[in-house]
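Input:
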Amino acid sequence: MKLVTTFLKTFFRNSRAIFFVILLPAAIFLLLATFGVERVLDFQLDLKYTDFLLPGIIAYAIMQAGVYTVGYTMIDYKRLNILRRLSVTPLTAGRFLWAQTGARFVIALIQTAVLLVLGLIMFSTVLSGQVIFLPLIILIGTIIFVNFGYIIACFARDYEEAAPYTSIAGLALGFLGDVFFPINNLPTFLQQAAGFLPLKPLTAAMRYSLYGVGGEIFPANIIVLLFWLAVSVFVANILFAKKAYK
Amino acid sequence: MNVVEIQNLKKSYGKTEAIRGLSFEVAQGEIFGLLGPNGAGKTTTLSILEGLERADSGQIKLPAKNKIGVVLQTTGFFDNLSLRELFDLFASFYPETISIERLISRFELEKIVDCKFNELSGGQKQRFVLASALLHKPELLFLDEPTIGLDPQVRQRFWDLILDLRREGMTVIITTHYLDEAEILCNRVAIIDRGRIVACDKPVKLINSLGIVSRIKFMSSKPINLAELEKLSGINSVRRDRYIYDLETDKPEIALRELLEWEKQYNGKIFNLQVQQATLEDVFLKLTGHSLRE
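Output:
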């Protein structure tokens, strides 16, 4: 618990981290929502665009916070020999990772709350779905993407080495994530691929949770997410202990 | 009673053999030094004992991990936390710790305890690093090149802290390539060269075992033929290290008189003349044929 609060302290004392993780997604949401993207592109939506965008941005922000922020933070910890110092204490790599994940979950809850409040106040979003599932979906998403960040940190020695991994992950997931626009117009094989990647199921699960849409595919989305959760946790724990935590 | 027992430790990186069968024991309350030049294998040995690296083979007997304290060669802490918060955090990793306030006072950290690690000077950092390694009252302390890069005054202050620990009966394994550090701090040293222990004993015994009493060192305004110096009485051997002539002698008075006599008929000038007691550097040179700094 002490380690979780330590990670939270280090996060909230870092103004750049607050900007990138909490303020920037909110700013992107405000910008896109007020810009009226649905008037520029011809979307077939069951929801108004701001309602479509809100869960997408929440999922995207969770992905970014994991892949980018956690990835780069871990590289810093490695580069500054913080992980080395911790590894000579009885603290195991597993406990370290779960504490970091716990702190990131709290940050994701705050991040989500900020975006939801913006949606509710500024764009008259009405929450008509199974909101009770929301914390669980945020938790699953956080675990998956922070573990992506851990894995990237295992392979990259510095920011420069990490950049290609984070860019590829961020771009592919963002493009196929059903975040900023519906992916119904993409070729079928890309839509199928998107269904197997973790961001689109996360976005869809969020939409179900907020508005009750897509209930019929909610269990399938959760299964895909749980698959990614198991794989990412397993791989990250093994790699991190072997390659980074020493 | 031995706190540490190492038998036939081996470690290779690809085709490079970093450690080639090291064996040693460290008794309780002893400060044991691993001495050698960069790349000799001392940091690799310590990394294995600290659990940071895995040995290819060999037996290791150590106390449990929560009874070991470590001062790494380079270490970092979370940027945004004060020293007090870092103490609290590290204390949470151990089932039992000593009073943080006592530690702060012992290591004279009162004035900086609310500062961040990155705001500290080199000496303050090293005092905090040592204090944080002692937080859980370890039975065994590893110090990996603890005074590297520190100025002489700060180094001596750090030595005082280590000598206090020795008086309290703490067992310490230290790696260093500072010979004065090893001579002052260590009860015993193992001299490591190319992954092997070439000698292991008390520093004084190692020095005396060579039968070298002193060295006469000087510089010359002109190159001197070493054979001329070798002919002088009382001189055992002669070396030249760039501009410094280095005469080994067990009869320093005779050798010095002979040298000054010889200088009268020498058409150059010798200067910076010094007479030195033998050191661990001489032991190292004798045993390995090369200098610690080469």
